[in-house]
Amino acid sequence: MPSVQRSMCAAILILQAVVFGLTTPVMISVADVDVATAVWVGLGLTLACILTAGMLGKRWAYVAGSVIQVASLGLGFVIPMMFFLGVIFASLWAGAYVLGRKVDTEKAERAATEEQWAG
After folding, report:
1. Residue numbers of the domain that contains 90
2. Which of 8, 62, 63, 115 fits 100 for a cystine, CB–CB 3.0-4.6 Å?
């Protein structure tokens, strides 16, 4: 049975990867960040999101996803708009984590009840 929590959290990370990829040229042109630094930070966070989304079958990947949310907020010190986006993504991440876990638990309970009734 596929995990709703995993799917929801992966979707948030993939959307966040797009945002991080787009912050790279913003850091260069608007925030006057060195090109090499902007590429390392922007594309590094993009890659981290994609890899973490793929590894969400492991429990540690959820911790890594939370660290990415902190990094998103920290990027606000370079690009002030990222404070706003960081709060939005952190909220979405928390919601996906909590609600996804709740749905997965309820699905497991329902499957156990159905199996008990069938057997």
Report:
1. 4-113
2. 8
